[in-house]
């Protein structure tokens, strides 16, 4: 491949391992970078892995670091209540610039589409460091959806030297934008690596509210946090939830509420005294995905949940107007329901009353990964630094006939 990593051999006797700085700041980046960090750390003869967190999130980041036993080498601790996009960008850019100057990495790995992602790539560019973008090539081609993530990933893609696209469709987006194919590696999504490590049939919930849930009744798992849904759209989502709970007495909703005070205030006003609604703090990743595995369906505006739920055979109603993850729509396990109250009530009602419609969506598919994404990323880095001759085998898109209908009596129902 053209423009391979700069040589890292210092003298004949002392060969310096490439230093890889893994940079992230929020919960989803941490979950999806963890498998990569563990994979690089398991190859200490090949790479020196350094973990730098901006801590754009604090508690929600720390939950993940603790679960995966990751201790950052540098923690910029930038989070503030009510932080603006400019605040995050400025603090992350400055802090990461200083971090790179002291760590002197041979390559910077960023993940996804947050403000930390973009600042991490820009700070690397300013120091002429190569950038690897994990979860590259996701697109809606709408500046406002999701906001600001669509532009964050575009801008990061322009700055990146290596693009780890989770799926063939994401790779095709990048090729259409002119990224040379030899710079793109189709790896699968690392979230599936994290999921497969974490979901277990016998999982016991520590949280008493979850431990006492009756999964014989139907549990709807809800999350929402997107900036474009703040205010009225979120109010409509909450009103739809209340209506559905009143109409279906056998349904429980579990809603781990994002730490953002804007969301908490709206929850407090719109969802007070709602029957069979369990509001809780953000759950640690293991509890969350094991809860998802036992839920009836998922209602969310999250990116990551759109990837995890299909793997577990859970229908997902996506609270957005557009998605950068079309694979689950194509597989029939996800539906874009938007944020209009009537549409949410109607679609939820349909899945709660029409068994055939439900079964059509409750199909376990893995368009997003096979659990080997981090291995492929490690192999691609070895190839880039001349430590390996061949490119990694791309993540193969699963053929449609591999779909496995989720059985009604399976452990995760
Ligand atoms: C951020 C990302 C978004 C990602 C989401 C994952 C940007 C612009 N947004 O959005 O792409 O989908 O994370 O959840 O990068 N807070 C806490 N403790 C925490 C985390 C957040 O108190 O552990 C509160 C703080 O008051 C903070 C606010 O939440 O100011 C918002 O956090 P921020 O990272 O700005 O935005 P998110 O909506 O979390
Ligand atoms: N998640 C979690 N605890 C929760 C809610 C979500 O661990 O209480 C995980 C979830 O499994 C997924 C990720 O957080 O892997 C998604 O994060 P979020 O929705 O905040 O961000 P997005 O994916 O939309 O960027």
Describe this structure in words.
41% of the residues lie in helices and 15% in strands. The chain has 413 residues and is an alpha/beta fold. It folds into 2 domains: 19-189 and 369-410, Rossmann fold; 205-362, Glycogen Phosphorylase B (Rossmann fold). A 7-stranded parallel β-sheet has the order 3-2-1-4-5-6-7, sandwiched between helices. α1 runs parallel beside α2, α9 (232-247) packs across α10 (261-270) and α9 runs parallel beside α14. The model is unreliable at 401-413 (pLDDT under 50). Bound molecules: uridine-diphosphate-N-acetylglucosamine and uridine-5'-diphosphate (UDP). The site of uridine-diphosphate-N-acetylglucosamine has 23 residues, from α1, α2 and α3.
**CATH class wording of the largest domain:** Alpha Beta
List segments where confidence is low: pLDDT < 50 over at least 5 consecutive residues. Answer: 401-413
Mean pLDDT: 93
- Biggest beta sheet attributes: 7 strands, parallel
The strands making up the biggest β-sheet line up spatially as 3-2-1-4-5-6-7
DSSP strand content = 5-15%
| Class from secondary-structure proportions | alpha/beta
CATH superfamily of the largest domain: Glycogen Phosphorylase B
Instruction: Output the CATH topology of the largest domain.
Output: Rossmann fold
Distance between the termini: 47 Å
